[in-house]
Amino acid sequence: MNAQQPAADPSPSADRPAEAPQAPRDDRAPLEELGFTVSGRIARPVAEVYEAVADPEQLSRYFTTGGARGRLAAGADVTWDFADFPGRFPVTVVEAVPPRRIVIAWEGSDLAGDATTTRTVFTFEPLDDGARTLVTIAESAWRTTVGGAKNAFGNCEGWTGMLAAMKVWLEHGITLREGFYR
Question: pLDDT tens digits for 73-84?
Fold first, then answer.
């Protein structure tokens, strides 16, 4: 006997903003590229959370362990350094709409088609009358190969770690990554 699952509540809530209607998806269709989305909730207002990403001094405190150079502003070319991946990573800011959205492009390998960079989209949605923020990070552009999957999974791990580190830094003043990689 098959038990039926209750339908998910489609209405928006304080923890889940309303989403635009999406076209039906064929789960059997071949993938054209790999990508992922990660999200986390931070108990700080949206403008404060946005600044923690856009401001290089703040970003360097919890994420770019080797330092960030340059503010994430539309059209800017900045660099990020990480203790776990030595060397400067160039980052191009494609779009910045304070305090709601940042889009960056940065080099990747095993990318789909003619792409030379991945596309990373940060969105910041206020929750609970502005007391908390839902941060969503989506990144895509990898080939549907073992190498593409390895790179996509690695970046997914990195962005998930970034969200956790940002949360504890903004909410508790703790630098989670300090001493973690070196």
Answer: 999 999 999 887
